[in-house]
Amino acid sequence: QVRVVESGGGLVQPGGSLKLTCTASGNIFSIDAMAWYRQPPGKQRELVATIGSGGSTNYADSVRGLFTISRDNTKNAAYLQMNSLKPEDTAVYYCNVMIFGRGNYWGQGTQVIVSS
Known about the structure:
Elements: E1 2-7, E2 10-12, E3 18-26, E4 31-39, E5 46-51, E6 57-59, E7 67-72, E8 77-82, E9 91-99, E10 103-106, E11 110-114
Parallel strand pairs: 2-11
Antiparallel strand pairs: 1-3, 3-8, 4-5, 4-9, 5-6, 7-8, 9-10, 9-11
């Protein structure tokens, strides 16, 4: 059994920053890719950023240069540093963890609200 937990969301003013944390625990041998998705109110879930097992990264065009994804393999953790936040970044942010030979696992999400 694998558990994925996100944390770090909250209310922030436009232009502010937040850092999200994703931690995977349980029966994990090796994690492949880790990713952050988000679901804005009334919209579909969308990919924000991914990071491979070797550290290669990809970003959605809307966040490239503003958000940074990173990971700590010793802690089975991924992070999303979000800078220069805008109201349109308001969403529930989800972590997705791909485990070799096991499949994908999702967390419950963490709410980010960007508002003055």
